[in-house]
Amino acid sequence: AYSLNNLTRNKQMPYATLTELLERIPEGVLIDLTDDDAAGVVDTDKVDRAIGDADTEIDSYLGRRYPLPIEPAPPLLVRLSLDLATEVLYGRRAHVDTPEAVTRAARTARSILADIAVRKADLPGLADTTAGAGPSGASFSADGRLFTRGSQRGL
Fold first, then answer.
1. Beta carbons of 104 and 81 less than 8 angstroms apart
2. What's the rounded Cα separation, in Å, for the pair 150 and 37?
3. Residues 84 and 113 sit within 8 Å (Cβ to Cβ)
4. What DSSP line would sit under 126-155, residue for residue?
5. What stretches of 63-117 show up as alpha helix (H) in DSSP?
6. pLDDT one digit per residue (tens) for the chain, 155 residues
7. Cα–Cα distance between 141 and 78 in angstroms, integer?
8. Which residue, among 45, 41, 53, 39, has the nearest Cα to 91 in the 3D structure?
9. What is the number of H-type helices and E-type strands within the chain?
10. What pairs with residue 9 in β-bridges?
């Protein structure tokens, strides 16, 4: 069997969990993708690593707009994490062809993340911490000048 005890990564909760992954991938397939020792069980360490890799990729897109980690993870992030983690797991097996649906879902996930990163899309329910900021992440404004050369003539 497998354990749900190893679900944390870097002291933060992952965006997706083994339980959620098992709702998408049949257990037998997940065993085939993770069981390097022929133990006949899901290797939870490999699943955790795949989810961690997916979450790191997600954070690389979102870190400029949102404080990380994003907790709790909105449903969209859970879906994107699962899509990317599934691709990572298939990528572990050179002899297994990655299904086109998995490749397409991961490509779509990256496209959505890229759109969020450049403000073409948003994460529903989260405030953008850089809204209105320039490329450097900071913006400046000031009132007009009080003293100009023209106002100082003749003094």
1. no
2. 82
3. no
4. ---TTTT--TTS-----PPPS--HHHHTT-
5. 75-91, 100-117
6. 333 443 333 457 899 999 999 999 999 999 999 999 999 999 999 999 999 999 999 999 999 899 988 989 999 999 999 999 999 999 999 888 999 999 999 999 999 999 999 999 999 877 777 655 444 455 555 566 666 666 666 66
7. 38
8. 53
9. 6, 0
10. 12
By residue count, the chain amounts to 155
Q: How far is residue 95's CA from residue 33's CA, in Å, rounded to a whole number?
A: 11
Q: What is the largest CA-CA distance in the chain?
A: 92
Instruction: Provide DSSP, 103-118.
Output: HHHHHHHHHHHHHHHT
d(CA 38, CA 9): 26
* Prediction pTM value: 0.76
What number of other Cβ atoms are within 10 A of residue 33's Cβ?
A: 22
Contacts of 132 (CB under 8 A, 6+ apart): 139
Rounded (10°) CA dihedral 92, 96, 99, 103: 30
